[in-house]
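[09:14] KT: can someone run the structure on this one? pasting the chain below
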Amino acid sequence: MPEEQQEPEEQQESTLTVLLAFGANLGIAIAKIVAAVITGSASMAAEAAHSIADTFNEVLLIVGLRRSGRPADRRHPLGYGKERYIWTLLVAVAIFGMGALFAFYQGVETLLGHPGEESDPLAGYIVLAVSFALEAVSWQQALRQVRADARDEGLPMIVYIRRTDEPTSISVLLEDSAALLGLLFAFAGLGLHQLTGSAIWDGVGSIMIGVLLTAVALILGRINLNLLIGNQADPRLVHDVRGLLGAAPEIEWVVDIVTMTVGADRVLVCARLDFRDTLTAGEVERACVRMSHELRAAHGEIDEVFIEPVPRDDPELRDRVIARYGRISPPGRS
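[09:31] RB: done, structure tokens below
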């Protein structure tokens, strides 16, 4: 199948993106911890926690990539593709639990009048500058991959991010974008603290980092929640499937089509079709096999196809379709 040839390349690209982010975040986390101890800066400590969380998250993403790539078996006949979404959802939880909450704690503690002693901000500036350069390298790799994937799908990048069934590179891109903004907040907090002598700015910088990480966690959580519940396939694929089935000479009416994403570039298609009454049982069987092959040949991401012959005037089925879509698909060949 086409997807079997494409999947290794896509997974290798995702793995490269994650490994690059892991190496950058690990080095940055160590440097930020040292700088936070030297400077006593709340925003620098928040950024250190942020980088520790990001480093841990890359490990989760790598585990998700490996485990979700296992082939289908008796216990999991549709494969393990959705396991990737579980691990990416854990990334969102870690961003909030390990990064955002610590940043909020540091910021509130500073604003309440318990700031750490800021001794030498120069070390902080150096670490922030080096961190920004390293994060930019990782961010560029993630952005390049997301742009390439969006281009392959023929979608604007924002639309692709909303529709994608491959959240790994999106996770790295959002993490690195938050990291770059967080570094700017930390730099502002550190600098304003030095200029004004007031630790309030350091606390505000830490809280802003917390707000930023909370937003990223919510976005990632929402993306993976939809994928775990079971998203419909790309509307363009659904429309094309309807057209291909409706054009088959054996089909009187395409009654209902249900699709679901079951993993990265893996789609389940269930079609209820009203076959012409003049067909024999054998002709219906051969038509089902042929249409399944045609759908897979047209769309490599279609993994399983189930076709159910049904009468279009069945009242119970009609009510179920109306309950799902609000209306019955119009009769015809499309």
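[09:33] KT: thanks! Residues 53 and 97 are 9 Å apart (CA to CA).
[09:34] RB: yep, looked fine to me
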